[in-house]
């Protein structure tokens, strides 16, 4: 009687097992690459250059900042009026004037807010993801502390004469 020998197993990996980790790695790169390239280049989907970060020259702080940080730089402690997903807004009451500080989680939300504010007109100090609404006389002093630019928004209706 002859005895049957057990099948001999090769120590070499089959080609499909060798290629599987490589294929998974290649697939992972193909999934991650578009995500990485979408974050680079400094341009948004509309082809516009991404806004640069606004520095606060006097304090050496870089905005975007929290309402409380901006309020501290302007010399007040803000009372939070709105705390929503789209924006945070704080009211500052000082001897000189009352003013609002509004921050946004995304630049596009700030631009939408400013577009809505055009109805009212006026001047605003605008930085990266934040806006300060104050008397025009205060905006220039805040600009020295916070950075940003002063934007004048046109209201609707006839212009006052004279």
How are the secondary structure elements laid out?
Elements: H1 15-39, E1 55-56, E2 61-62, H2 67-74, E3 79-83, E4 88-93, E5 98-103, H3 107-117, E6 122-127, E7 130-133, H4 136-146, E8 149-153
Antiparallel strand pairs: 1-2, 3-4, 4-5, 5-7, 6-7, 6-8
Label this structure with key terms:
six-stranded antiparallel beta sheet, 4 helices, alpha+beta, globular, 162 residues, two-stranded antiparallel ribbon, single chain
In the predicted model, the low-confidence regions spanning at least 5 consecutive residues are 18-55
Number of strands: 8
Tell the overall outline: globular
Mean pLDDT: 73
SS field, number of helical segments = 4
Structural class: alpha+beta
Beginning-to-end CA distance, first to last residue: 121 Å
The largest sheet, given as strand count, sense and whether it forms a barrel, is:
6 strands, antiparallel
Strand order of the largest sheet: 3-4-5-7-6-8
Helix fraction bin = 25-40%
The radius of gyration is 29 Å
Task: Write down the secondary-structure element order.
Answer: HEEHEEEHEEHE
Strand content: 15-25%
What does this structure look like?
The chain has four helices and eight strands; from the N terminus they run αββαβββαββαβ. 34% of the residues lie in helices and 22% in strands. It is α+β, with helices and mostly antiparallel strands and 162 residues long. It has a six-stranded antiparallel beta sheet with strand order 3-4-5-7-6-8, with helices on both faces. The radius of gyration is 29 Å and the shape is globular.
